[in-house]
What does this fold into?
Amino acid sequence: MVSGIVLPIKKVNSLVDQNISVEIKDEGCKFEGRLAAMDEYLNLHMENTVEITANGRRELGDVVIRGNNILSIAPLN
Amino acid sequence: MVSGIVLPIKKVNSLVDQNISVEIKDEGCKFEGRLAAMDEYLNLHMENTVEITANGRRELGDVVIRGNNILSIAPLN
Amino acid sequence: MVSGIVLPIKKVNSLVDQNISVEIKDEGCKFEGRLAAMDEYLNLHMENTVEITANGRRELGDVVIRGNNILSIAPLN
Amino acid sequence: MVSGIVLPIKKVNSLVDQNISVEIKDEGCKFEGRLAAMDEYLNLHMENTVEITANGRRELGDVVIRGNNILSIAPLN
Amino acid sequence: MVSGIVLPIKKVNSLVDQNISVEIKDEGCKFEGRLAAMDEYLNLHMENTVEITANGRRELGDVVIRGNNILSIAPLN
Amino acid sequence: MVSGIVLPIKKVNSLVDQNISVEIKDEGCKFEGRLAAMDEYLNLHMENTVEITANGRRELGDVVIRGNNILSIAPLN
It folds into this structure.
């Protein structure tokens, strides 16, 4: 289990400097942008961020997202 | 209580490399895919992931799901 | 306060191998089944689990429920 | 600040063996019963518990309530 | 960053023995009363507490509010 | 990963004494004001704070916002 303990965090860390898609819990919204930095709580610092909801897209630029409200993180294809 | 303290995490760890079904709290959605890795917070790294909602199925591929928003994890039969 | 600090967890631990009823927060659903194992976060490993909602009953079998989404745990009479 | 750090927990501890009212977040429900034990996370073990909702009262007996889903705890007058 | 790490908690601690207004997340309700004690998790012990919702005011007296369900804390003017 | 572990918190710390916009999870509301102090949990002490909802703006002045209910933090342009 030693390797299993770090792997999801490591997976996110491997996405630093790449474009990611972040789904937010209970919000029907997601953030897309470049992952600038992350920490062990999955707090994310994103750049060139766009918030996408049912109402459309909104440019947010530089933003810090708190980890506990994140549902999922995936590379943006 | 010593063995009880680790068992739910160990149960999830035993599902690594298997297909699992993950129900999300408050979302009416679930994720199905191969469990690639997990950690002590039940953060999950899943592969070949499909998100299933009332609106249908969506291919997500590689995704990290934050543990605190997970309601339940079960082997996929 | 020394004894008070451990008692709710110990109460749940005393239910291992018994049938329990687990109410989920905000979900209008509960899980019933045999408590196989628990840990200090109230993560539960349940067996022969049935999910009960307003829509009926669903057999889940073996399932791990994350502790933070649990509202209450009680012995099943 | 030393005394302030422990006091809310101590206040709840002083209610052990008394009847309390516990309001649940987002649920429109509360639990009333005797506080048998508590811990530092405000996990509560209650006895002779009654769940009170807009739909009426339900006898729960012995129940463990997870602390993070509790909104407030007060002595029952 | 050393001073920044403690300041929000210290700000709340400076409100002990004063009247405060506490907004609850997702509830459309707030609590007003005297802050008797607080801890590092922002658990609050309040006295002479009034719960204010769209339905009116309710006297709660002595109450402990769990920190994680608090949205904001402010001095009551 | 050493630098990644601290960066989102450091990014927020760099905003102390600047005007920020704080979006709250599930609330359809945001807070704008001067960031006076923050801590490692992203608890924020804000000054000259305005709460902005669909119903309009409300002056809050001095307020402490608990970190776990924050969705995102961004510099206010």
User: Anything to note?
Assistant: Chains C and A do not touch (no CB pair under 8 Å).
